[in-house]
Specification:
Chain A has 120 residues and is α+β, with helices and mostly antiparallel strands. In chain A, 32% of the residues lie in helices and 30% in strands. Chain B has 226 residues and is α/β, with parallel strands linked by helices. Classes of the chains: A alpha+beta (120), B alpha/beta (226). The complex binds adenosine-5'-diphosphate, magnesium ion and zinc ion. The site of adenosine-5'-diphosphate (ADP) has 17 residues of chain B, from helix 2, strand 9 and helix 8.
Chain lengths: 120, 226
């Protein structure tokens, strides 16, 4: 349900940029694992006449030691929830499957990103 | 090309609107920032609704000092901090537990932003414990909150004095509500004496509270300056 807070941030961002927004495009990073339904209904409740495009973005973690990319592996249920609240918490629970390093960067698919706001 | 934009920054100041913010800082580690933050929070919680935000990602200490055994956060149209002894407490330890959370600069800033953007506080005063130094956390607090006040903690050592000068040079006098001399050998409004008892009280809320009793004047003074 903290999706509501994320949706509020989007609404605040959009209203800073357009008085009459028509359409927004939002990327949802795999890492944060936002519940699309709750997020969308929160957005709809706050901006009912705006068209909302949601796209999922796959998470890519890049190891700073061996420079290889890694996909997000299965996290335990509890860890998944902590990462849902705070994506950077992934640094507490994941290491590079190739070299074992804990030093990696979230390259893509972290959280909520606004791709575009259309309107005036 | 699509512009990629971060919606969080636009809501951070609104989330903490109307809440006084006191960041406890120092360029040097180990001077007692976390201990002072915890004691101040316990004392001020008697007169106001106090939130404590522990932004030390590499070594979050607030839950340990306060003696919080089980860490859990709630969720209700945002992340709700944990209630403890009449305060609201949120720490990086709520997410990383006992594990290390190694992350580099930009991602540290990202983590700080996330907590500021999605946490819903019910507080009059937010006490913010910070990691040592003038890095991401201090810079983000300066950037997001024009109304944040800073309490700079130092000790009588020459090295701490040097760190203090650096910290003050960055923050500027108008942001700093006071310099607290911890582990002190003298008495003043913002002095806390060196005492083995303080160290021993770590993790024992009742003991901490009874020691804090002797620091009421200090807490009053800080409250007055906020
Ligand atoms: N006034 C004091 N007298 C004695 N020991 C203290 C005092 N204040 C803090 N300490 C101890 O000093 C150590 C460092 O304190 P801490 O609060 O972790 O500092 P920081 O957050 O600045 O790194 C801890 O072991 C703490 O118990
Ligand atoms: Mg500390
Ligand atoms: Zn690697």
């Amino acid at each position: 349900m903290h999706e509501w807070a994320l949706a509020e941030a989007v609404v605040s961002f959009v209203s800073d940029r357009a008085d009459r927004p028509r359409r927004i495009r939002v990327l949802l990073g795999e890492l944060q694992n936002v519940d699309e339904e709750i997020f969308l209904s929160a957005l709809k409740e706050m901006m009912d006449d705006v068209e909302i495009d949601l796209t999922r973005e796959e998470c890519v973690l890049r190891c700073n030691a061996c420079k290889k990319d890694m996909k997000l592996k299965d996290l335990g249920e509890e860890e998944r929830e902590l990462v849902h609240f705070l994506p950077e918490a992934v640094h507490a629970y994941v290491s590079c499957p190739l070299c074992g390093s804990r030093d990696f960067t979230i390259e893509k698919g972290r959280g909520v990103v606004i791709e575009s706001v259309e309107g005036s | 090309m699509a512009e990629r934009n971060d919606p969080r920054e636009s809501i951070i100041d609104r989330r903490l609107d109307g809440i006084k913010k006191l960041a406890v800082v120092s360029a040097k580690g180990g001077v007692g920032k976390s201990t002072v933050s915890a004691i101040l929070a316990l004392l001020l919680a008697e007169k106001a609704k106090v939130g404590v935000l522990d932004l030390d990602a590499y070594n979050p200490s607030i839950p340990t000092i306060l003696g919080m055994r089980e860490l859990r956060v709630g969720e209700d149209r945002g992340i709700t901090p944990q209630s403890f002894r009449g305060m609201q407490v949120l720490s990086f330890a709520h997410f990383s537990g006992d594990r290390a959370m190694p992350l580099r600069g930009r991602e540290l800033s990202d983590a700080v932003k996330e907590l500021l953007a999605v946490t819903t506080w019910d507080a009059d005063l937010l006490i913010i414990d910070t990691p040592p130094g003038t890095g991401e956390v201090t810079l983000d607090l300066l950037r997001f909150f024009r109304d944040a006040r800073f309490l700079v903690v130092t000790t009588p050592s020459a090295l701490a004095k040097m760190a203090l000068d650096r910290e003050l040079e960055l923050l500027g006098r108008s942001r700093v509500i006071g310099v607290l001399e911890n582990m002190s050998e003298r008495d003043c409004d913002l002095c806390v004496r060196y005492s083995k008892e303080i160290e021993m009280a770590c993790g024992d809320t009742d003991r901490l509270m009874s020691l804090a009793d002797g620091m009421r004047n200090m807490a009053e003074e800080i409250w007055r300056r906020l």
